[in-house]
Each structure stands twice: as C-alpha cells, then as structure tokens.
C-alpha cells in the first residue's frame, strides 16, 4: 500500500505512515524561551497532534529517542513525561545528552509509533 | 493485533513487540564499576534475555545503535561484540560517542529486532 | 519470510531487509579529506546504491538520523540534502551534533527505508 506523508516541505516530511508504522521526525519546541517543563510539554503536545492526525494516539507510541541539551534538565523532563503517558502505556525509550542544532532547544524527541488495531490499514473490519 | 509489552513501569516499557518487530529501550549495565568489556557483555546479555522472552534470539537483531561514553572504549566494545553475534548474523549498527545520563555507564545500546519466522504472530503454520 | 542481508562481514550487516522494511547501518564517507558537501553527497550516493540493491530508491526513504561532527557544516549538508530528494519525497529526519568515531568523518547517516509497493515481498500482484 502507498505510504502517507504529513507536513511535507522541501527538506523533510514531518511524519510518514507506512503500513501500520508511524515515523515522526525530530520534534522540538518553538517556545525557545521556555524552561524544560514547558518545552517537554510542548514537544509531547506536538507529537500527540501528529499522532491524532495519523489516526493514532499516545497509547500507541513504540519508541522515543530523547536528546537532552542539558544534564540538569533530566528530572524536569521526566516530571512532565511521567504524567503524560497513560499508566501501563509508556513506550520504550532511550535518553542521552546531545548538542542540538538550535542552542535554545532544551530537548528533541524522535518517535516511532503505530496505528491502533482498528485503524490499521488493511486490518479486517471490527464489525460487519 | 494487540502489541505486547514487557518490563512495564510508570516511566517506560522495556520492550514492545508489534507484529513481527521488537523495540527495545536503551540498555545499560548495572555493573557501573565494570570496564568496557564487562559492561558490553552485560548489556548484550540483557538484550538476549529480552529477546528470548519475546520468542526471538541473537540471530534476529536488525539494528543496534551503540552510544559510547569514551572513545578509548571503542576497541574493547568491539572485542566483545565481534565474538558475540554468530558468524553471518550480525545486525546493522551505528556507533558514535555520546554523553550518557549516568557518568558510570560506559555504553548504551538501542535495539530493533524481529521475531523469527516460525514465531511470527499470524504467520502461517509451517506444518499442517 | 526470511530476512535478506547485504554487505555482511564479521562485525555487521550493512543492510537488512525484513518484510517491506529496510534497515541500513551508519553510513559515512571514505573521502575523509572532503568538505561537508563532498562527504554529504558521498554518503547519500552510498545510501542510494544500497537502496537500489535492495530493490528500492530515494523516493522510499522513511527516516534519516543525521549526525554532524561540526555545527558549521549544517548549512553545507542541507545544500546537498535539499537538492537530492525528489520534491515531495523527502523522508522524516532528525539532525544533531555528535562526536563520530573517526575524527575525519564530518557526518554519519542512519537510514530506515521501505521497498516500493510493487517490489514488496509477499504483496499481492497489482494485475491478474
């Protein structure tokens, strides 16, 4: 089946859905003056907006690569993270420090997710 | 089909199996006093334990992202790595330096793997 | 179905195709004396060579993780990148700084791609 692209500009697609798998490019916060909690919430909100657009949701995130610009932000990022995913539905994750392209970005997240079973293209209809 | 989660705590799932694909979160060594060879073996052993739990094995690893805290550890990590994967079954990999969250961790690995053909959910039975 | 490996040596497979998904290990340039534009073009050319070998092409790249050794190379990398992907077919991407294993490498790219629909193993024939 053909892949679906979202947020396509010259340089990149912001999201691609291929079969049941969702690929999301590096997500950062436009709120460059925000602290780590504000930026984390902003990034997660942007991810959710994309997931909903694809027909998925925050319960269907498979993996998140978290890149933090500052070690001191680790706890603040986790405070927002820990209350954002529904209990029992947190994704796999890996978090390291990294120097980001814009020095005002405090974090960047790279996400792989999935379409929920009912929304999966080609899945059998749940009801006749 | 529903995804399967392993090692679920508030913050993350340690492994998620979605269809035939296995996502494993960042793996580190608890042996924080160990040298690079000890920590590499520890990380690979932990990955194998997860793979076996999912019904897979070390021959079915698709990609490994290796994050090394110290450049001087590159050769030591490879000494363990090169003897760990069965000949002809090494995964794709990418290795760079990175500052890890715990300064005592010498490496972190992020793994994508697959269920072997016979174990793949929904795969046709091999024998009637 | 069995996975297909390409470029297998003791340490790694350079590419693995599993179902319709293509995993490519970290790609760097052999032209270690080259500037960022030369190295970027070299890396993208190497990726395309692998994609063609697998039966895919540059229109079917799903995600690229770009690791840059030097912040000053960001614009030069993008100059090559922006003219390389066909309009409307750019992948998702995430770009950060990272210290690479060989100090002469200016960038490294990690790619996930897909087989085009007609080439997808097991896909139903498009015409009877």
State the main characteristics.
homotrimer; 128 residues; 2 helices; disordered C terminus; alpha+beta; 23% helix; 60s Ribosomal Protein L30, Chain: A
Protein model, in words:
The structure is a homotrimer. With about 130 residues, chain A is α+β, with helices and mostly antiparallel strands. Chain A has one domain (about 5-115): 60s Ribosomal Protein L30, Chain: A, CATH 3.30.1330. Helices cover about 25% and strands about 30% of the residues of chain A. A 6-stranded mixed sheet of chain A has the order 1-2-3-6-4-5, with helices on one face. The longest helix of chain A is centred in the middle third of the chain and has 19 residues, at about 35-55. The two termini of chain A are about 25 Å apart. Mean pLDDT of chain A is about 95; it is low at about 120-128. Chains in contact: A-B, A-C, B-C. The interface of A and B includes residues 20, 21, 60 and 81 of A.
Topology summary:
Three copies of one chain form a homotrimer.
Chain A (H helix, E strand, L loop, with lengths): L3 E5 L4 E6 L2 E7 L8 H19 L6 E8 L5 H11 L7 E6 L9 E8 L14
Helix pairs in contact in A: 1-2
């Amino acid at each position: 089946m053909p892949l679906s692209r979202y947020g396509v500009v010259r340089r990149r697609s912001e999201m691609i859905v291929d079969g049941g798998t969702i690929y999301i490019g590096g997500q950062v916060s436009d709120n460059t003056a925000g602290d780590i909690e504000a930026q984390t919430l902003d990034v997660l909100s942007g991810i959710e907006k994309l997931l909903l657009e694809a027909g998925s949701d925050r319960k269907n995130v498979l993996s998140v690569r978290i890149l933090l610009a500052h070690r001191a932000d680790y706890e603040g990022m986790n405070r927002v993270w820990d209350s954002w995913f529904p209990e029992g539905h947190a994704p796999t994750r890996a978090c390291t420090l990294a120097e980001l392209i814009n020095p005002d970005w405090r974090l960047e997240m790279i996400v792989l997710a999935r379409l929920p079973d009912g929304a999966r293209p080609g899945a059998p209809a749940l009801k006749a």
